[in-house]
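User: Second chain of the day. Same drill as before.
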Amino acid sequence: MPATISSLAELEALYGLPAEASILKESRRIMPEYRAFIEAAPFVALATRGPEGLDCSPRGDGPGFVRVQDDRTLLMPDRRGNNRIDSLRNIVRDPHVALLFLIPGVGETIRVNGRAVISVDPALLEGFAVDDKGPKSVIAITVETIFFQCARAILRSELWNPQNHVPREALPSAGQILASLSGRRFDGEAYDKALPERQRTTLY
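Assistant: Same format as last time:
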């Protein structure tokens, strides 16, 4: 790749200094204003790292599913999934995590960097139960930095514009992807047929 940046000096010369607001917005604690965003967010991307590399996992539930325990601590239930547990494997070996909170209709996002541990405390799990079904674990995150990201990326992408929603049938289905990756040994059609009911009955 030609004309690449190979030093911080080159990078900083290209972009210049950040605006005052870009520095001022960063905090080491969860201020009430940031708490309001977190409690309104039904979706967060969780980034982790481990010996095999990086991972970024989508997490979602009702608004406020990531709980603010205090001004330095977040609690996130690990709901049912595919049991790959890529994020959890990484946290066990490297506690560094990053989170990006999104709120439908809102341009600003909230970014968190911190360290995580995995708790299986029975009382904590019970407190996150839905329909009498608790998570297998709760990820407890100690916040090191938190700040808002301005709305430019959301505005450019028109992420919340319903006119830009892509019909699901316009893209390959999960079954089609699995069939292709398995050389057609996997019954993708049967997988797609069973998927909606399986997802409905295994949300929690």
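The radius of gyration is 20 Å.

User: Great, on to the next one.
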